[in-house]
Amino acid sequence: MTDPASTRLFQVAAPGKRVCFWGAPAHVASDHDLVRRLEATGANTGNLFIGHGLFHGLDCAHKAFHPGFAAIPAERLHEHFDVVFVPASNFVGNGVDLTAHADYFARTKLPIFCFGLGSQLRPGETPALKPGTERFLRLMADRSGSIGVRGAFTAEVLWDMGIRNTSITGCPSMLGMRTDILARLAVAVPSRDKVALNFSNNVRRHALYPDAMRISENALFQRLLSENAYYIIQNERPELDMIAAMMAGDGRRYASAMQEIATLFGVSASRSDLRNFLERRMRVFFSVEDWVGCMETMSAAIGSRFHGNVAALLAGTPALFLVHDMRTRELCELMRLPHVLLDREVPVEEILERAGELDYAPFIAQFARLTMEWRLFLDRNGLGLQFHEARAVAPVAA
User: Ranges for the Polysaccharide pyruvyl transferase domain (predicted)?
Assistant: First the structure.
């Protein structure tokens, strides 16, 4: 099999190091049911792009995900590894509890390097982090030269906490970008021939403007029911329930899920076009390779899921990001990704018009600039950046 890192624009280099990964996964087992597979992703399949990007974007002696706190005593982790890499998600949030992780890693003797840390807070919201979460953030700051954060908003939140050694590097999922894909994005002409849709209908209450988001997303969903579009889900419970019900032949569960989905999108559950769309055009992926492969067949992607659109970009398919919170906003602004802020009821025709005129030249130019920021960030942590094809490195068990 070809090394997934061999054609990437650049790689993180940790020569001779044994790297322990803890955080967003790169892969999940394929022999589990939907619920267990979703749990293995960290309750959101989009997390796979974070772990996959960093894991396959690293050249080192050995690398493996931590087998579990019970498998290796913290005091002996250094016998198996030289450094800990944390492919992070939105850890800076008032509802996040990382007490167990703070307790465990504080007892280790290893440096801890964090990539892609994000904040779940809203602008002006006072941080009320759980003590264990704050301890873990400070531990990562103490054990590294710099913490890689997703954008300026997260950096400001940490600054106000007294954590000043941060580098604004964006998301590790972009480590999967390749030269040929950037070239494809540079000339791509989006169309509605075959559109990949993604929504965040289960987290609307956390949006900057919940009502505007709901109305805008629902209008887009309703408009594209009758077009050649596909709905890519990540962790939406009713949609997953519907898929599980169809697999099990459970009519009652199917009907309940259908009604809940219809209510979320403001349509009647009795509509045949809704039933046909959900039964035939809804997809969920537990493999980055499968997901990106599907996106290669699309002519455009539109939606509010950041990593749902990253899947399209890594396939060379242009995407329009619908920004509803600070998590996606800071990333889109940093990387100059085409986006629409859902701060009002955005007419569906406006969204579709924007999706038809996507320009990825600013993103491509900014990608080159971010490469230098990555170089500085890695240098602060004693790591390197390499631009040549590295040898394949097989994952090894601890």
Answer: 44-325
Tell me the domain boundaries of the chain: 11-176+363-386, 189-359
Residue 398's closest CA among 62, 42, 55, 26?
Answer: 62
- Give CATH for domain 189-359: 3.40.50
Which DSSP string corresponds to 368-390? Answer: HHHHHHHHHHHHHTT-EEE-SPP
The model carries a pTM of: 0.95
Neighbours of 63 (CB within 10 A): 23
Question: Which residue in this structure is represented by tokens 């599980």?
Answer: 244
| Tokens of residue 321, six digits | 């990001």
Taking the C-alpha atoms of residue 112 and residue 381, their distance in angstroms, rounded to an integer, is 9
In Å, the largest CA–CA distance within the chain is 61
Distance CA 345, CA 172 (A): 32
Tokens 């600039």, located at residue: 369
Backbone angles phi, psi at 231, to 5 degrees: -105, 110
Name the amino acid, one letter, at 243.
I
Residue 64 — pLDDT band, cuts 50, 70, 90? very high
CA torsion through residues 4, 110, 43, 88, sign: negative
Q: Which residues contact 130 (CB under 8 A, 6 or more apart)?
A: 94, 96, 97, 98, 99
